[in-house]
UniProtKB/TrEMBL annotation:
<feature type="active site" description="Acyl-ester intermediate">
    <location>
        <position position="15"/>
    </location>
</feature>
<feature type="active site">
    <location>
        <position position="82"/>
    </location>
</feature>
<keyword id="KW-0645">Protease</keyword>
<dbReference type="InterPro" id="IPR018044">
    <property type="entry name" value="Peptidase_S11"/>
</dbReference>
<protein>
    <submittedName>
        <fullName>D-alanyl-D-alanine carboxypeptidase</fullName>
    </submittedName>
</protein>
<dbReference type="GO" id="GO:0006508">
    <property type="term" value="P:proteolysis"/>
</dbReference>
<dbReference type="InterPro" id="IPR012338">
    <property type="entry name" value="Beta-lactam/transpept-like"/>
</dbReference>
<dbReference type="GO" id="GO:0009002">
    <property type="term" value="F:serine-type D-Ala-D-Ala carboxypeptidase activity"/>
</dbReference>
<keyword id="KW-0732">Signal</keyword>
<dbReference type="GO" id="GO:0009252">
    <property type="term" value="P:peptidoglycan biosynthetic process"/>
</dbReference>
<feature type="domain" description="Peptidase S11 D-alanyl-D-alanine carboxypeptidase A N-terminal">
    <location>
        <begin position="4"/>
        <end position="122"/>
    </location>
</feature>
<comment type="similarity">
    <text>Belongs to the peptidase S11 family.</text>
</comment>
<feature type="active site" description="Proton acceptor">
    <location>
        <position position="18"/>
    </location>
</feature>
<dbReference type="Pfam" id="PF00768">
    <property type="entry name" value="Peptidase_S11"/>
</dbReference>
<dbReference type="InterPro" id="IPR001967">
    <property type="entry name" value="Peptidase_S11_N"/>
</dbReference>
<keyword id="KW-0133">Cell shape</keyword>
<dbReference type="GO" id="GO:0071555">
    <property type="term" value="P:cell wall organization"/>
</dbReference>
Amino acid sequence: MIASTPNQTPVPIASVTKIMTAYLVLKAHPLQPGEDGPILTMNAQDVSDYQNDLSNGYSILKVKQGEQLTEIQLLEGLMLPSGDNIASTLGSWASGTEDAFVAKMNDIAQSLGMTKTHYADASQKSLKSTLDANAEILDQVRSEF
């Protein structure tokens, strides 16, 4: 385990959620070193998510309808500028819908013993998402990748 403290109180997760998002995307669509992965074409929903997140002041990665991005480019956009809109794109791609993806996030959190963790979306926009400790997911990612 990386770190833990007793008597932790769940708090809004911020960008730690994106670690779980990246983890599940890579579990669903693994990449070998040097691979870029499949190409995804940005659609109207991706552009709408970008525009909504931009207008709400969230962290974003600009996308245009018809733009083609590889899995690795999207993962970089998720983690480096902390693109909230990209979390939605990747979650929908990996599981069909963002809601289905979030259900998987919560299932994995429970299986890792993160009993006070609850994800409400694939990024961190919702204040309904809470985290009791992020060490478990970091340990899991480190052990698998």
